[in-house]
Amino acid sequence: MKFLLIDDDDVFADVLARALIRRGHEVERAASEAEALLMLGKGYERIVLDLNLGGDSGLKLLPVLRRQSPDSTVLVLTGYASIATAVEAIKLGAVQYLAKPASVDEILQAFQQIEPDAALPVCARPMSVRRLTWEHVQRVLAEHDGNISATARALNMHRRTLQRMLAKKPVSD
C-alpha cells in the first residue's frame, strides 16, 4: 500500500512512517497543506490526515483530497477528538476518525474497517462539561477561520475572555 501522511508533528509522523515501512508499506510525508497538495498526483491508496495542521484545520483540506485523489481512502487523526469534528470529517469524505495517540495497528485496522462496527465498546466515561465547552469553542473558532473577534461575538463573550481561554492548554477528560 502507498500511504501519504499529512501531519505537522514530525516526531509522530516519523514514528508512524517507520512503523508502516516495517510492515511493508510505501510512505511519503507532508507537513503542511501546501506540501500535501503538491504530492497528490502520485496515486496514494491511503491518506492519513491530521486535523490540526499548524493551526489550520485539516477539515478544509479533506474535500480537496477527495476531489483530487478520489481513489484514496482518507483517515483523520486528531489530538482533539470530538463528536462534532468526527461527524464533519465523515461528511467530508473521511472513512474513519481516530484520536491520537493511535497505534499503527489501530490505524491499519481502521482502514480495513470502513463500515462502523456496532460491537465496538462505547466510552464508559463521557466527556466533561469543561471538555465539551473547549470542543465547542474550537469548532466555532474553526468556523470563523481563527478570527478571535468574530468567534467571541458568535459565542456572546468578551474577546479578552476568549483569548485567555484559548491561551490555556486544552482541557483533558
TrEMBL record:
The keyword tRNA-binding does not apply. GO terms for cellular component: cytosol; protein-DNA complex. The modification 4-aspartylphosphate is found at residue 50. Keywords: DNA-binding, Phosphoprotein, Transcription, Transcription regulation, Two-component regulatory system. It comes from Paludibacterium purpuratum. It comes from the Bacteria. Residues 2-115 form the Response regulatory domain. InterPro entries: CheY-like_superfamily, HTH_Fis, Sig_transdc_resp-reg_receiver, WalR-like. The keyword Transcription applies. This is Two-component system response regulator RegA. One of its GO terms (molecular function) is phosphorelay response regulator activity. GO terms for biological process: regulation of DNA-templated transcription.
